[in-house]
Amino acid sequence: MRTNTNRRPALRMAALSILAVGALAACGANEEDAATGSADADGNITVRLGVVGPKTGPASLYYEYMDQTFEAFSDDFEEQYGVTFEIVSEDDQASPEETARAVSKLINEEGVHAILGPPLSGNALQVAEVVQRSGVPWLLAGPNADEIINYDQQPNWAFQTNFTNQQIMAVLGERLWADGAKVGIVYSADGFGQSNLANLAAWAAENGHELSVEETIQPGAADANAIVKRFEDAGVKSVFMGITQGADIATVTRSVEQAGYEPDTILTTGTILTDYADVADPSQWENIQIVDPRNFLEGGDHWVLEQVQEETGEPPAIPSNNVGTYAILDIYAQAVQQVGDANDKEAVRQAIEDIETVHIGPDLTIESPFAPDDHRLYTEDPSTWFTYGFDEEFNLVNLGTAAECIETGC
Question: Which CATH class is domain 165-292+383-408?
Fold first, then answer.
């Protein structure tokens, strides 16, 4: 259950703790002895948190959101729970092979108490079995692919604080196929895109529908003219874009405008909030909508984004994932505080699974989100999701809940 409450005092906004100076740029090697995972004489616990993601390369925004969240909030988790994070970071350059190397190093050489990342679904899928076998709590604030967590493996060590592709398809399906519309999907040629396709096709099959067109876009494609033409020729009236990079979404919407193609519905995910507006025009986004379980415009979710902006001087790199990172750090810090020793990983994992209240900012709580067969923070109840459009400045506009848009349109 998602509730707003003022019972929790606002967290103090301060500089990073000394062990995390430079946010994720620092590996903390000089403070190795301090990060024992056990309580010191003052009762504080310093944990070695392995962080893996693309520091460099075209997907670096997927690392930046983690960096921003640590810069804004590290001291606050220390103050609230007596838990300090010593960051041990690895650059996977968005390469699944580099992710495998980085995760192996973090587990076997660095001896981290938990792993945050990787943020990309395809990379997370690459290392899912390795992390599960390692018995290290796995904190997933970004990846959406349902296939990352295999619940047949128990106890399971992975926890997701982003929505999954199965969940968003359950919310979007009725919108896309409203009034018997023909539906097409364009998806990126990676784990995220493929999971979007698989889950949308599965929802359609379960509900007596079918996808009329399925098209892949390669990263950095110059145009999507052929894709748009196939949509037009097939009579597609509802388009879903399951694309990892905002720039590639812009390639599609640019081709849509150039072709004069006017589908009734164009839906996508929060990945459009990355670098889309830098390479697109207002006329290309005026009819696009996204759905998300977070309220980016008010309450605790909005507070997190405001603090990121204030503390870093930069807009949140990926707003949904900035919030997800805050949530997963709150969850993990609570679990370590409860157990009293980050080295007891089994007990920490169980404390995460049993967590009663997740705090997001000073006034938003989510109650008892996890179960042994469900490590997802959010549900697919459309009444708890928000539908957003965009104004001319690419600011989000709340159009109502997903349930309201299903019932009356948006």
Answer: alpha beta
CA angle 76, 77, 83 (to 5 degrees): 135
pLDDT digits (tens, 9 = 90+) for 14-54: 333 334 434 444 444 444 457 899 999 999 999 999 999 99
For residue 249, the model assigns a pLDDT of 97
**Residue-level pLDDT at 1:** 60
**Ramachandran category for residue 242: left, alpha or beta (phi over 0 → left; psi -120 to 50 → alpha):** beta
Beta strands 386-390 and 396-401: pairing type? antiparallel
Do the two domains 2-163+296-379 and 165-292+383-408 of this chain adopt the same fold? yes
d(CA 229, CA 235): 10
CB 296 within 8 A of CB 302: yes
Q: Which superfamily does CATH assign the domain made up of 2-163+296-379 to? A: Response regulator (3.40.50.2300)
Domain layout of the chain by residue ranges: 2-163+296-379, 165-292+383-408
In the structure, what pLDDT confidence band is assigned to residue 4 with cuts at 50, 70 and 90?
A: low
Q: What are 315's two structure tokens?
A: 């807009």
Q: Calculate the dihedral angle through the C-alpha atoms of 66, 361, 73, 344, rounding to the nearest 10 degrees.
A: -80
Distances (CA, A) of 342 to 28, 46, 161, 191, 258: 17, 8, 20, 31, 55
Q: Whose structure tokens read 């905002």? A: 246
Q: Which of 216, 348, 239 is nearest to 288 (CA)?
A: 239
Give, in order, the Cα–Cα distances in Å from 128 to each of 62, 307, 326, 331.
18, 32, 22, 20
Other CB atoms within a 10 A radius of the CB of residue 40 amount to 12
In sequence order, the 6+-apart residues with CB closer than 8 A to the CB of 342 are: 37, 38, 45, 47, 113, 114, 336, 348
Q: Which of 106, 153, 111 is nearest to 128 (CA)?
A: 153
Kindly give, in sequence order, each residue whose CB lies less than 8 Å from that of residue 214, ignoring residues fewer than 6 positions away. 184, 185, 187, 197, 201
- Counting residues of the chain whose pLDDT is more than 90, the rounded percentage is 85
Q: Which residues have CB under 8 Å from 257's CB, separation 6+?
A: 281, 283, 284
Q: pLDDT tens digits for 306-363?
A: 999 999 999 999 999 999 999 999 999 999 999 999 999 999 999 999 999 999 999 9
